[in-house]
Amino acid sequence: MPVERSFLRRCAAASLPLFWFTTPASSADDPFKDTRALFVQAYTRASSVSTAPVGPDNDALQTYPLYPYLQAARIRQALTNGTDALDSVDQRAATFLAYYDREPVTRELRRSWLENLAKRRRWPLFLDHYRDASATDALRCNSFTARIELGRTEGLASDIAAQWLTPQSLPECETAFEWLRARDALTPALIEQRVRLALDKGTPAFARQIIAQLPAAKAGPYLQWAAILDNPQRGIDTVIGAPTTPVDPDALFAGWKLLVRRDRDGAVARYDSLVRARQLDEATASRYALALAAPLAWNRDPAALDFFDKARPADFDESTFEWQARAALWANDWKRVERAIAAMPPELRDTPRWRYWSARAADERHDRDAARQLYESVIPNDNYYAAMASARIDRAMKPHPEKLPLDRAKVKEIGQLPAFVRSRELLRASMRREALTEWQYGYDSLIETSRPQTIHLAADWEWFDVAVSTATQLRVFNDYTLLYPQPYDKEVRTAAKTMGVQPDLIYGVLRQESLYRSDAVSSAGAYGLLQLLPSTARSTAQRWRRARPSATDLFNPSTNVTLGAGQLRILLDRFGGQTAVALAGYNAGPNAAARWLPTEALDPDIWIENIPYNETRGYVQRVLWHSLVFAWLRSGDAQQTDGWLARIGAPADPAVLGDSEADSGVRNTF
């Protein structure tokens, strides 16, 4: 479940203000409770700009597992405030780093101290404590300056040349680049490589800065490339109108892809003219056709199939194989669906997704035996396609649980290891980012056979997002009791009753949105368990005559679940009770979901498969499956999924719900 892993990384980066949220202990046994409170107070002071003197720490604090974090914070504070003699601070930092060496507590201090040393040009000390493997680009550039200043230049030219080859500006490296240039080692070939990197990344303005370092004779083609990126329509038209004018093939194709992204219809209108004007042979024209085919398929444009036909199968990748099949599904061309699936690489063709669609195609040509055999092969996979396959053969879907063996003694042993003790204390102190780092450090130190028990450990701590992400890392998916907890049952059931939404659907959304994190904040500014944008929460509260919530109110599980369920109810009503469309609207925004509705009723699996946003398609499929699992856990009964087969159509009311902000927070890629 890659979405869950990526969510964990996003939420780790989008941390809350320190100590906003405190994770409760899952056990009455909390020996560090009082000392932790002292630590939190001291750490808060050490993280501020306060210059007030600090008295001696008591014995309990000095022996507390997180005391090194307080020491590191005080050293960083001293570096920032400049209240202590910097030589003394340097000695404290050096001693601390030497003692704790590669432990996670050193990472932020090392970076801060090295940045400070670089500003003070304390190059010998800088190099003594610099580690390239964990360095930022800026610190790596500073290390080059240090080596130049100290005359440690053996192998330096190749190191700087490797850093030179980056598509963005590196101001900290200008000294190093000048050193390379002064030795005639910054060759035109290196300059051209960096220009190409910048142009490939689509940054023509920065590329021009590098192009200026080339001889005029070599600069021309790259300036032409930059001009095409600046205005791809004008650039492509110029190339068509002057067929004998030389143009770099990569520049032409980069401009073409940008034109397709900005103006698909314009690209369609120019395709034949471009092929004729530049006399593109079949092999060369293929990638131009393919670059246009997939975006047309995203837009459900029937012309997509024509452009897939113009491309060579050898040029297809996994994504284009799939979009060719989706375009055929949208066109209801089942023979073409079968051909498209047959052309896929075996490892793709054999996934549950495409085995399910092979079954559907066999069904459409009335080969019931082949269809049933394929449906049966999908069902044990326990996912959205398994549930759809069950519906197709009129069988209730019952998940196939696989218990992860619990070794209680091993779990206790792991939990007492220093890294995991620190991780739990950091979590309880609301230092989530540091807690995750310590967790990973401890996890990496375990032998492989012990690692599965960390899933149980995280679940015991009620650190459910880490339990699920660790399980995903270890490919443990089917221990549903362990991985589908229901810690907010009271809030969910109350909201379900109030808003008329199935509790299993609410839990499905909650699990997918936040992995049970009531303090989650997304990169798009969505808050809490059901990841509500403040604007959406306010409009939903107004609709249901609730108090206007602040952003911080959305960390309250009761408020968040109630308003999230209310938003689901609004979307279900807006889209005629069509759960899949409502879920698409919850993820991508109601305006996007409305745009995707078919003009005529369509099979739901075809509609879902053709949701153009990869994230939203996966989101809808996962939430449907999660909801089924929660319903099964609640009742113990196999679940009927025949309701999933209700056809998708546009509601009678064509009005689009919500304002322009409703779609602004989408994090989707095609």
Q: In words, what does this structure look like?
A:
The two termini are 18 Å apart. The radius of gyration is 29 Å and the shape is globular. 41% of the residues are buried. The protein has a domain at 489-663: Orthogonal Bundle (Lysozyme), CATH 1.10.530. With 670 residues, the protein is an all-alpha fold. The model is unreliable at 1-27 and 656-669 (pLDDT under 50). The protein has 38 helices and no strands.
Largest sheet: none
Assigned CATH class of the domain at 489-663: Mainly Alpha
What's the CATH architecture of the domain at 489-663? Orthogonal Bundle
Mean pLDDT: 92
Cα-based radius of gyration, to the nearest Å: 29 Å
How many beta-strand runs? 0
Overall geometric form: globular
* Helical proportion, percent range: 55-70%
Taking pLDDT < 50 over at least 5 consecutive residues as the criterion, the unreliable ranges are 1-27, 656-669
Class by alpha and beta content: mainly alpha
Strand content: under 5%
Q: How many alpha or pi helices?
A: 38
N-to-C span: 18 Å
* CATH topology grouping of the domain at 489-663: Lysozyme
